[in-house]
Amino acid sequence: MDRKVLDLWVGIFVAVGLGALLVLALQVSNASTTFNTAESYTVVAEFDNIGGLKVRAPVRSAGVLVGRVESIGFDNQKFVARVVMKLDKRYQFPKDSSASILTSGLLGEQYIGLEGGADDELLTDGDRLTLTQSAVVLERLIGQFLYGRAAEGGSN
Fold it and tell me: Looking at the whole model, is its pTM more than 0.85?
């Protein structure tokens, strides 16, 4: 094979490999899933523990992407994490909806799951969700399990 043809094939192989790495990086970072922020409203929720939740994490309801986490902060008075979410205006939720921090996928990506309530009034821009469930922290579960086992073994 001619040297120029071999160099061309190596270049094509490298370009395809870099493209595949870019696609993989976009999937891992949630940048590949788009969300229209032009028509959205903001909702705030407070959690005792957010685990590994990150800004731009998905907000899903029934598996459908309905928004993204806009910001995460800490409330110095209540000692809780304050999560601000931007939800698409196409999806309206009742005021008594609940938010939970859930985990999906092999990489342990965390997202917020919204469950609609039964209230007649709908959430509007700036509303606060009061029914929240914090992230399940694996280390805490293991500690509780081991502590429970130790307590059972010590009483016999």
Answer: no
